[in-house]
Design goal:
CATH class of the largest domain: Alpha Beta
CATH superfamily of the largest domain: Alanine racemase
Shape: elongated
GO molecular function: diaminopimelate decarboxylase activity; pyridoxal phosphate binding
CATH topology of the largest domain: TIM Barrel
Number of helices: 12
Helix content: 25-40%
Enzyme class: lyase
Strand content: 15-25%
Bound molecules: ligand LLP
Structural class: alpha/beta
Protein name: Diaminopimelate decarboxylase
Organism: Roseateles aquatilis
EC number: 4.1.1.20
Mean pLDDT: 95
Length: 419
């Protein structure tokens, strides 16, 4: 839910926009710390850094005792750069870093072997390749329970239409590869989607316990289970926020059932991305043009879908506020909010499928500041250089202080890659 825009906060955002230029990502460390605190029941909270992988955000997570999930070689190297370490194989269940994916490209395979990063395998081929390259390597199994859920079809990661995870009925085959290759099983993991509906939770927990039974029946042991991520946040007024205590209690009950099956204590992990960072972030953009096309009123800002891709990609809703440059109150107007890209889909007010929507906003003028809320997750991390636009700066606010945690990229840097 967007933090209230008090006059003091409006002034601060205006000052940041003036100092660092727009478009600009701004994160609030206090919100991240609050979200971490709400998940304390879990033995391990492992941040899915794809949501926001700036190393300064990762350092903040590390200082708060949060571990990290990496899904590419780049994300493994980011975690190491942020001070995360990998312990010994014997302590692999406590590893700061886990690598989760459905395949290992050759470079990444070398990196996870070199740093001995535990691998959460989403395919049997991964197990074979890892076993060949790295005897005894610690592994998790990411399982697809045969059903999934998400805020859009594009974020549903379970069921037969999803490419993710090892299909639940193939768990015995995966365990046989682990035994044959001499890999070490740490735990079972399940992530059925992002922005999940909690009605599915009991079903997910039940599936996890059933799969632990399969491990036991095959004579293997494990030390942990992971609930994956997927915790949603209230993007719209009236969206129910997640009850983290209830969420924990359901998973804790599943853990106890799993412990009864396996015969000893199991660690319980959670792997959230969005929940930890989404509400900490805003995207600031300057209004650069306003125009009326037939019956539609357009407000054009200097940020596009190359910065915030979620509305164009999923039809995602983000709350927006306009801060008038002159501080005056203006009448509201149904407004289409769009960006600078040479592409019709560069609209921040749209539904999945590209239908353009309007938002009631104060009548905008050039020079006003648009605040796009709840963009701390899958904002900067999904940005691109489309239309040869350099990546923008990121600022981390912490109480009265703030610091730039990524400077703006330059066009020269883009061109340098091509020489
Ligand atoms: N664990 C695994 C294995 C995942 O694949 C993901 C997200 C997460 C954890 C974290 O999910 P979260 O807690 O953030 O929902 N770009 C989309 C979201 C895609 C998420 C992909 N995997 C969006 O902007 O909504």
């Amino acid at each position: 839910m967007p933090q209230a825009l008090t006059p003091a906060r409006e002034q601060r955002l205006q000052a940041l926009a003036a100092q660092y230029g727009t478009p600009l990502w701004v994160y609030d460390a206090a919100v991240i710390r609050e979200r971490i605190a709400a998940l304390r029941g879990f033995d391990t909270v492992r941040f899915a850094q794809k949501a926001c992988s700036n190393t300064h955000i990762l350092r903040l997570m590390r200082e708060q005792g949060v571990k990290v999930d990496s899904v590419s070689r780049g994300e493994v190297l980011r975690a190491l750069a942020a001070g995360y370490t990998v312990g010994t194989d014997a302590d692999a269940v406590h590893s700061d870093i886990v690598f989760t994916a459905d395949l290992l490209d050759r470079e990444t395979l070398k990196t996870v072997v070199e740093h001995r990063v535990p691998v959460n395998a989403g395919s049997i081929d991964m197990l074979e390749q890892l076993g060949e390259a790295s005897p005894g390597h610690p592994v998790w199994l990411r399982l697809n329970p045969g059903f999934g859920h998400g805020h859009s079809n594009k974020t549903n990661t379970g069921g037969e239409h999803s490419k993710h995870g090892i299909w639940h009925t193939q768990l015995p085959d995966a365990l046989a590869v682990i035994a044959r290759r001499g890999l070490t099983l740490i735990g079972l993991h399940m992530h059925i989607g992002s922005g999940v509906d909690y009605g599915h939770l009991a079903q997910v927990c039940g599936a996890m316990v059933d799969l632990v039974r399969v491990v036991k029946a095959q004579g293997l042991d494990l030390q942990a289970i992971s609930a994956g991520g997927g915790l949603s946040i209230p993007y719209r007024d009236g969206d129910a926020g997640i009850d983290t205590a209830h969420y924990f209690s359901l998973w804790d009950a599943a853990r106890q059932d799993a412990q009864a099956v396996i015969g000893h204590p199991l660690a319980l992990e959670l792997e959230p991305g969005r929940y930890l960072v989404a509400e900490s972030g805003v995207l600031l953009a300057e209004v650069r043009a306003v125009k009326t096309q037939g019956s539609q009123h357009f407000l054009l800002v200097d940020a596009g879908f190359n910065e915030l891709m979620r509305p164009a990609m999923y039809g995602s809703f983000h709350a927006m506020s306009l801060i008038p440059a002159d501080g005056q109150t203006r009448p509201t107007q149904a407004t289409v909010v769009a960006g600078p890209l040479c592409e019709s889909g560069d609209v921040f007010t749209q539904e999945d499928g590209g239908v353009v929507l309007t938002r009631d906003l104060p009548r905008a003028r050039v020079g006003d500041l648009l605040v796009i809320h709840d963009t701390g997750a899958y904002g900067a991390s999904m940005s691109s250089n489309y239309n040869s636009r350099p990546l923008i700066a990121e600022v981390l606010v912490d109480g009265p202080t703030e610091r730039q945690i990524r400077r703006r990229q330059t066009v020269d840097e883009l061109l340098a890659l091509e020489l």
